[in-house]
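FW: tagging you since you asked about this chain on Friday. Here's the raw sequence from the shared folder, copied in full. Didn't touch anything.
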Amino acid sequence: MVSGFRLVSVTLALNLALITLVGPLADAFGVTGLRWSVVAIAVSLALGFALLSYNSELYVDGVWHFGFLVFLLSIGVHTIVGTGLTSGDATATEITVVWLFAVGAVLVAFKETVREQLRA
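HL: got it, structure written out here
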């Protein structure tokens, strides 16, 4: 059984990581309104439910660390490389590559913790 409070916490943490991908992609593709945020929340909720169903003892603080580090690293890389994310000039390819780099870097940095958490 998945705890509701844990699911909300994991969903918000994953949404923090996804927002640096979905928000800029929505701008790149010209999607307006709140549709993109609803999609991000739905994906985060589904992924959070899957993770908690797989491992009910998932370390929720670790998910928050992951989300926060992906958020900071992707924003930092966009700023350092100068992709134009903040001005809306970044292409969809640049946004996706930078986000995948950030996720990969965080996963590699904490690979032992990730392996430990994925063992059921």
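FW: The chain has a mean pLDDT of 86.
HL: agreed, and The CA atoms of residues 81 and 98 lie 10 Å apart.
FW: great, closing this out.
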